[in-house]
Amino acid sequence: MTKPRALIVDDEPLARERLQRLLQRQNTVELAGECGDGPDALATIERERPDIVFLDVQMPGCSGLDVANQLPATARPAIIFVTAHERFAVEAFAARAVDYLLKPFDEERLHQAVERALELLQSRQAREVETRLESILAQVQPRVPERIAVRVDGRIVFVKPREVVWIEAANNYCVLHLTDAPRLMLRESLGSVEQRLGAANFARISRSAVVRSDQIKELESANYGEYVVVLLNGTRLPLSRYRRNELERALTEAR
């Protein structure tokens, strides 16, 4: 596993050397470099993209607080302030610091600060993965159309998916049972209509019936292990035993 990369920023060479020695002893991060002033730190952060920055507060020309406040909101490293002065703590945490190390600090206190930074980095990575997965799923999931055009008796009728309660196969035709309109019979296969309406909102319950998932009221047990799908409008439709597990899974995911 790749170690997080850390940058040390302090205008005192001895302080940088001591911190580097302690970090090497702990062996939890990889050193990305060191800087002696604020402008160099900003340039190095932009170039090296470290995961963690140990940042001194008081430095000539550009303080550590100035550096932290100039960093972008996104792709921002975890900031651990390192200073001999307590009075900057409020400003440091206002600059979204992970921790505030008071000099002189011991190895255990440094370990605590590094652990806090690692926890922040892990939570960021988890959020990034979740965001990427959501983006991928949004691209691959079937798009639900606002409405579809169906040809009925020489006319073209526009039907919204939410108006369809269930669809019934009838030989070479299928029948759309709607919420507030007469049923429509069209010369099209059940599978074709199901696909056009958006399969994410509909569930196949048998070879001859597809229902809109949010119109299902309950599954009622019948004889010999058979089940009946009861819709909100009272319609009762037989459920194929081969479709039961698939339907229950679809209903669970839709909640």
From TrEMBL:
Domain Response regulatory: 5-118
Positions of modified residues (4-aspartylphosphate): 56
Record keywords: Phosphoprotein
Keyword Cytoplasm included in the entry's annotation: no
Pfam (any one): LytTR
Statement: the UniProt record of this protein carries the keyword Phosphoprotein: yes
GO molecular function, one term: DNA binding
Membrane-traversing stretches: none
All copies of domain HTH LytTR-type, residue ranges: 148-253
Domain of life: Bacteria
Matches recorded under PANTHER family: STAGE 0 SPORULATION PROTEIN A HOMOLOG, TRANSCRIPTIONAL REGULATOR-RELATED
Protein name: Two component transcriptional regulator, LytTR family
Lineage, uppermost ranks: Bacteria, Pseudomonadati, Verrucomicrobiota, Opitutia, Opitutales
